[in-house]
């Protein structure tokens, strides 16, 4: 019995006892009501009219009624408990049924587990049998693999044995060949010994002939001495005869001899002077090279970076529309006033200004920059800003000229020349800024003059003013050298400076050391690597010519020009060119390039001779 069933049974027993007690009490009351007596033991008929008896009977009737109600309630409660007991029994029955079902499921699960276990045993037996068969098959495969491996190893051992036997055979052949070589070497040694014996015999014969020749020479010397004595006597007789015939004394003859010796000495002296001059010229050229190299090394200048186009960055692309204006009115007014072409394309936040006059282009750039910063862009405003920008550019040119004069160290110069020098701030020659070129040339010329113990101030002045004519080439016809000389002469420069200016491009032959040093410093500044731009066509032609020079040599396979033509890689065929030939080829190519081409800096020639041997290991 479960605890719940016990509790229900106890509750039922308690209710049954309560109901039984209530029934017994009700029966007892009913008996008392059916035979009532007076409190004194008298019959009921005697005390019918007694009020207390009536009240007592009424209380008993009420009590009986309450007992009846309690009995009814107890019966109802008992009925409820019975129903509860019935439902509890039904639930207990359901629980027992569930327990029975659970026991049945457990039994079924045990049966299923037993069945699964039996199946697992059977499957394990099957797998074990299959594993036995697989193990036998694997063992058979292993035995077959081992058999094949053994056969391969036997074949390899057999081939190795054959190779070793062949190697032993080759060694025996090499030993035989070495024995033959030793035999041949012994024969050559015997032949050489025989030759040495013959050579000794020939030397002995030569000694005998030399001894005979010496004896003959001694006889000839005696005969020669006799003839010399006879010749001396004949010369004395001839001298006397000549003196008699010519009527000259020995002193007069000596005088004529001295004159002839003097002529010969003068000729030899002229030859010596010529040799000394050639030596001095060679030494002077070497000294000049050292001076030029020292001057170039001591001057550190910029690379060329000038252009004919200026770029102006804008705060936003909206500004392009304001620059163009309504129907292009602003851009037409800007180009008309400044003389600069304004290019507005798809470049974000930037416009281009194009003009071949650098001063005018700078004025236009400054004008447009001020207009963009101001924000007010219209034709009248463009004219106002252009006047302000032109004044600022002129002031910047003046300041640039003064700074250049201070850097060079020139103070006393005419103001008009300063103005012309300022114009060169925006002038370029082959991409090189002319004002910077003048400063660089002056520094180089001053260093050369100091090395040669000359006046550096005069030579620096000549070099600094040598391109002053480029500031007026678009206004005056003629060469800038002659124009610059006329300008310098008109503004009070000395004759040495004027001559150096007019002679620096050989329109006039240089006659002074100042002119020569001006030419040299100008060439050094303009010809150094990176000073001036080189045209693409000339650059390509130089590279093609370099490759042609190297490719025309015998044994060359390929030629590569690298690092913008500063290095040449020459690939040669190793079977045609050996190590010494590669060195000779590099020297020949370098010498031919030096003789035929003009280029900045230096060109490295690298000859590559590569030999490759490839074998495959199987």
TrEMBL record:
Keywords: Coiled coil, Endonuclease, Hydrolase, Nuclease, RNA-binding. The keyword Magnesium does not apply. GO terms for cellular component: plasma membrane. Residues 159-179 are annotated as: Disordered. Residues 57-114 form a coiled coil. InterPro entries: HD/PDEase_dom, HD_domain, HDIG_dom, KH_dom, KH_dom_type_1, KH_dom_type_1_sf, Ribonuclease_Y, RNase_Y_N. PROSITE patterns: HD. It holds the Pfam family KH_1. Residues 434-527 form the HD domain. One of its GO terms (biological process) is mRNA catabolic process. The keyword Hydrolase applies. Its EC number is 3.1.-.-. Belongs to the RNase Y family. Endoribonuclease that initiates mRNA decay. PANTHER family: RIBONUCLEASE Y. This is Ribonuclease Y. It comes from Catellatospora bangladeshensis. The lineage of its organism: Bacteria, Bacillati, Actinomycetota, Actinomycetes, Micromonosporales.
């Amino acid at each position: 019995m479960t605890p719940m069933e016990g509790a229900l049974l106890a509750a039922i027993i308690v209710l049954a006892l309560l109901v039984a007690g209530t029934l017994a009490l009700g029966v007892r009351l009913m008996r008392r009501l059916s035979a009532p007596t007076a409190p004194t033991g008298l019959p009921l008929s005697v005390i019918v009219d007694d009020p207390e008896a009536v009240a007592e009977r009424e209380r008993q009737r009420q009590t009986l009624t309450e007992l009846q109600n309690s009995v009814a309630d107890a019966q109802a409660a008992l009925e409820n408990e019975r129903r509860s007991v019935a439902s509890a029994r039904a639930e207990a029955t359901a629980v027992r049924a569930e327990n029975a079902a659970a026991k049945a499921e457990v039994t079924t699960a045990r049966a299923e587990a037993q069945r699964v276990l039996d199946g697992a045993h059977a499957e394990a037996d099957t797998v074990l049998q299959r594993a036995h068969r697989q193990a036998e098959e694997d063992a058979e495969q292993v035995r077959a693999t081992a058999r094949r491996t053994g056969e391969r190893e036997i074949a390899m051992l057999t081939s190795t044995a054959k190779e070793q036997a062949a190697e032993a055979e080759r060694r025996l052949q090499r030993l035989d060949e070495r024995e033959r070589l030793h035999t041949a070497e012994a024969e050559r040694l015997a032949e050489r010994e025989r030759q040495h014996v013959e050579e000794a015999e020939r030397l002995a014969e030569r000694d005998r002939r030399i001894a005979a020749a010496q004896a003959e020479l001694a006889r000839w010397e005696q005969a020669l001495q006799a003839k010399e004595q006879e010749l001396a006597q004949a010369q004395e007789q001839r001298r006397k005869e000549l003196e008699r015939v010519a009527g000259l004394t020995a002193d007069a003859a000596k005088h004529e001899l001295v004159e002839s010796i003097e002529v010969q000495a003068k000729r030899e002296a002229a030859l010596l002077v010529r040799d000394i001059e050639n030596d001095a010229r060679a030494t002077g050229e070497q000294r000049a090279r050292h001076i030029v190299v020292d001057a170039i090394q001591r001057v550190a200048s910029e690379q060329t970076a000038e252009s004919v186009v200026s770029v102006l960055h804008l705060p936003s692309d909206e500004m392009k529309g304001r620059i163009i204006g309504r129907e292009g009115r602003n851009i037409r007014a800007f180009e008309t006033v400044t003389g600069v072409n304004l290019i507005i394309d798809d470049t974000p936040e930037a416009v281009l200004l194009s003009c071949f006059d650098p001063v005018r282009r700078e004025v236009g750039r400054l004008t447009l920059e001020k207009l963009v910063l101001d924000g007010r862009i219209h034709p009248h405003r463009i004219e106002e800003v252009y006047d302000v920008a032109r004044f600022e550019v002129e002031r910047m040119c003046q300041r640039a000229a003064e700074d250049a004069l201070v850097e060079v160290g020139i103070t006393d110069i005419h103001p008009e020349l300063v103005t012309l020098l300022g114009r060169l701030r925006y002038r370029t020659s082959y991409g090189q800024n002319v004002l910077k070129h003048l400063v660089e040339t002056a520094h180089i010329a001053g260093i050369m003059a100091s090395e040669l113990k000359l006046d550096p101030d005069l030579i620096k002045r000549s070099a600094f003013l040598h391109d002053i004519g480029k500031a007026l080439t678009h206004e005056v016809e003629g060469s800038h050298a002659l124009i610059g000389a006329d300008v310098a002469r008109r503004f009070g420069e000395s004759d040495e400076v004027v001559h150096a200016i007019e002679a620096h491009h050989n329109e006039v032959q240089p006659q002074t050391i100042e002119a020569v040093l001006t030419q040299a410093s100008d060439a050094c500044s303009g010809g150094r690597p990176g000073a001036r731009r080189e045209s693409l066509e000339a650059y390509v032609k130089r590279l093609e010519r370099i490759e042609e020079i190297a490719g025309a040599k015998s044994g060359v396979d390929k030629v590569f020009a690298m690092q913008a033509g500063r290095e040449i890689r020459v690939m040669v065929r190793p079977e045609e060119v050996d190590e010494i030939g590669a060195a000779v080829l590099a020297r020949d190519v370098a010498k031919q390039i030096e003789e035929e081409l003009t280029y900045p800096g230096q060109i490295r020639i690298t000859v590559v001779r590569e030999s490759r041997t490839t074998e495959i290991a199987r």
